[in-house]
Amino acid sequence: MRGTLAGRITLVCLAVAGVAVIVAGLVAARLIRTTADNVLQSSLSAQADVVATQLDETGIGNRLGVGKVADVVRGQGISVVVRRAGGQALGEAVAVQAATKLGLAADHSGRVTAGGSQYLVETRVVGTRGAAFALVQPARSAEATQRALVRSIALALGIGLLVAAVAGFGSGRLLGRPLRRAALAAGSLRAGRRDVRVPVQGPREVAEVAGSLNSLADALAVSEARQRDFLLSVSHELRTPLTAVTGFAEAIADGVASGDDALRAGRTIQREAARLERLVTDLLELARLGADEFRLDLAPVDLGALVRDCAEVWQLRCEREGVRLSVSAPAAAVPVVADARRLRQVVDGLAENALRVTPAGAPMVFSLSVSAAGAALSVRDGGPGLAPEDYPVAFDRGVLNKRYRDRRPVGSGIGLALVHGLVTRMGGTLTAGPAPEGGAAFTMTFPLAPAGPRGR
């Protein structure tokens, strides 16, 4: 299940605090245990030294002296083991076992295990006759210290977890606040609003999310504005031939147009229907261009031969419009990898745009050149050209149509977007700029194919 950011941060803080307290407690427990043992051992050693100073070489055999000493230390929970000169060690059985393990032949200090329990032992030799005694103290007092330590660790753990929970929850709420604002803004964007903005504040990552969301809102607003303009331009292009088709069809149906007038009306209807068909085809091609299933049959193509074939067709159309068409292409083959049918569609589309704006008597040029960068095919015209700021946006859908439709003949606004998409999908580049003839030049560039052409 998905938890909130505050909940997750709280859990992380709890885990960190818990681990820190437990690790610190374990380290402290070892240190305290060692320290407690050392303190007890030092205390027992000091008492053994005091007892040793009270006994002389013969005092160890003095029952009265030994008894008084034994009474003093036993009151502190310490057992006394005595070994007379040349005799056996006397005392409680477990204490004797512990002292014997450590050794009564010399002064010793240490911890031993006897009877399943741990004991701190101090042995001292008195005089030169081999008399000795030992003080034996159970190590249970250290266990009490450890239990107290465990209680302290548990208390510290509880306090640490409480503080971590409060700090984690507060931090989570504080960090999650800008993210919640971003989520609300995203919901507003999904609902259609484009004026929502998120304050760019908080940690860097959160601020980046807010900035990206604001950029997305700006991009959506620009994209939707372009779509509206594009739809308006397409609607305008559709309305013109539809009006002509409807008007002439009504004239024929009502009997107003007959004879030669009906023939002219039929030709007009046919021409406008073909125009509508081209427009719808371009729209469909443009819509399919970004889809994965859009197929291209890439193969080596002789670009020079394709240019010459196109020139034969466009030579007749240019003559009818009074436009001079010139072709510049090397005689040798210029192989590039492309889809021959789509490449012909691109050249025809650029030529149609050029012819539309080229006045009678002005030139239109097909120019093919080869360089180390590849093969470059330019379609140039002697028309009015474009404003310098329009060349960078020439391939955006509907932009040129919106800017120039009231000043000159323009297309639907999708032709240049379509050819740019086709060239890009085939691995080439298409650029726009001013032409030496005074109009605009559209240049496509393709890398040269490594092998000769196998077809067109």
UniProtKB/TrEMBL annotation:
Gene3D superfamilies: 1.10.287.130, 6.10.340.10, Histidine kinase-like ATPase, C-terminal domain
Catalyzed reactions: ATP + protein L-histidine = ADP + protein N-phospho-L-histidine
Signal peptide: none
Annotated ranges, domain HAMP: 173-225
GO CC terms: plasma membrane
Name the UniProt record assigns to this protein: Signal transduction histidine-protein kinase/phosphatase MprB
Domain Histidine kinase: 233-450
Keywords: ATP-binding, Cell membrane, Hydrolase, Kinase, Magnesium, Manganese, Membrane, Nucleotide-binding, Phosphoprotein, Protein phosphatase, Stress response, Transferase, Transmembrane, Transmembrane helix, Two-component regulatory system, Virulence
Enzyme class: transferase
UniProt xrefs under SMART domains: HAMP, HATPase_c, HisKA
Compartments in which it is found: Cell membrane
Membrane topology, record value: Multi-pass membrane protein
PANTHER family in UniProt: SENSOR PROTEIN CREC
Family annotation (Pfam families): HAMP, HATPase_c, HisKA
MF term (GO), any: ATP binding
Domain of life: Bacteria
Residues annotated as transmembrane: 6-32, 148-170
E.C. number(s) listed in UniProt: 2.7.13.3
Organism: Amycolatopsis pretoriensis
